[in-house]
Amino acid sequence: MPALPLIIDTDTGSDDAVALLLAAASGLGDIRAVTTVAGNVPVTVAARNALISLETAGRTDIPVHLGCAGPMLREASGAQDVHGEDGMGNTGLPDPGAAPRDGHAVEALLSYPRRHPGELTLVTLAPLTNIAAALLIDPELFTRYRHVYCMAGAADLAGNVSPTAEFNVWADPEAARIVTRAADADKVTWIGWDVSRKDAVMTPADQRRLQELGTPMATFTHRINRTVADFARNVTGLAGYDLPDPIAMAVALDPALITEQERAHVQISVADETRGQLVIDRRVSAPAPNLTLVRRVDEAGFKKLLFDTVAAPGAPLPGDAPAG
Ligand code: BDR
Ligand code: CA
User: Fold this and answer.
1) Model confidence over 201-217: pLDDT tens digits?
2) Which residue range forms the structural domain that includes residue 86?
């Protein structure tokens, strides 16, 4: 199967980083560009972390673009309580060798699919600010992509940042509104935090397996997610840390991993108490579905892809490269 040509939009924190490894090093993805946005961390930190992650996968050639520095209307919030001050588990990683390329992320999101109409798959792992900004310029943008996969929302209304909302939608709910209004269920698939919570939890046994593998990518994955492990223990109450962006990326790379999905008409709440919550209309009289919502994924298949990918020799771990 030829590798899937991808554009990836990310606010690179520790789980985005693992999603980038999957796209760059599994052999299933062909990343044409990475666009960055404020979310987990400020946008310049997100770009730095994206470059470090790609370098860890041995890919210093992939262009990374800086994007929007904050949400459309809201104050930037950040998730450094989850992913660490540096977004990478406070691991003190050295600066990457490469720098962000010229050209704003929104420009990149608009121009790549114009040059390759219908060929590229867009995967978003972050608040939807860049995507909404691009849609305001080109309302037909989604038709120019082959498919759009978003790590966004919580279709069972169990949230991670509030009782009912998931971070990427909560952080910029107006942007998410713009996206859902431009979406159609044949073109746009959301993989929400409910899937991550059920099918992408790295149990203590999985974490030990990463440590035992000991390859640069396995060690990187283990180290950068240590603050998420604390958050999972203290806040979300999972039996390990979850990997929302990697499972969304795995679905994009191999949709056969989906075991349950629904098509529905979805709106986004911007009200104070329910900010960022999905409003899913499941009535027979509902308007035409605008999103496909993935509800369950083959956990074993996802973990096999993850372990197979990080088991590869890869590049030396950032900071551990031999001198000279
Ligand atoms: C999403 O929010 C971020 O903290 C993660 O990187 C992921 O994209 C999960 O809700
Ligand atoms: Ca993310």
Assistant:
1) 999 999 999 999 999 99
2) 4-310
